[in-house]
Recover the amino acids of this structure.
């Protein structure tokens, strides 16, 4: 098997066109399987219940299952599946992690939903942990507030049910792979398209 070229610089200030051509040979296939790496990270949620009745992966699967069965489009279903993917890395900002992962691949509305779902879900429990349950009211006039409240009510809230007929991760894997094939927005999009 032929070894791929690598960059020769030791400081990015020394990079040449040949170096960056070599890097891009590695980058394109790496980027094209981003969905597989996202799925690997999502699997880390399995077995971690965090005090809930189901583990975090099951919660994500139930949320996506409910969205799928309600006829939501593929991007919405994947957003629902990944909305809590940041739980393992960001105990204090898990919505930000999910939003950062999804940002290049979803609409502004879906990005806003995932970014703000924690505050909107807070209506159901913030008052039990000493926070203002009405914190989401500060976003009441935002164009995506109603869609976020709907996501919480219909899909996120009821998805802690150990008896729910949840679809397996394998059902959603092709959707994730398709969504992560091509970004809608990214500073690197043009460079990646020049193959």
């Amino acid at each position: 098997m032929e070894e791929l070229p690598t960059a020769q610089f030791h400081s990015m200030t020394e990079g040449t066109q040949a170096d960056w051509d070599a890097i891009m040979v590695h980058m394109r296939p790496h980027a094209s399987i981003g969905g597989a790496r996202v799925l690997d990270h999502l699997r880390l949620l399995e077995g971690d219940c965090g005090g809930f009745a189901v583990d975090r992966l099951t919660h994500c699967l139930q949320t996506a299952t409910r969205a799928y069965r309600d006829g939501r489009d593929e991007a919405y279903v994947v957003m629902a599946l990944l909305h809590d993917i940041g739980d393992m890395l960001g105990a204090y900002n898990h919505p930000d992690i999910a939003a950062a992962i999804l940002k290049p691949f979803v609409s502004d509305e879906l990005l806003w939903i995932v970014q703000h779902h924690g505050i909107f879900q807070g209506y159901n429990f913030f008052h039990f942990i000493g926070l203002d349950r009405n914190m989401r009211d500060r976003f009441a006039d935002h164009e995506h507030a109603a869609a976020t409240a709907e996501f919480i009510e219909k899909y996120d809230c009821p998805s802690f049910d150990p008896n729910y007929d949840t679809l397996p991760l394998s059902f959603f894997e092709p959707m994730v792979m398709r969504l992560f094939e091509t970004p809608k927005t990214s500073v690197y999009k043009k460079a990646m398209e020049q193959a």
Summary: DSSP finds nine helices and no strands in the chain. The chain has a mean pLDDT of 92. The longest helix spans residues 17-32. The CA atoms of residues 51 and 88 lie 14 Å apart.
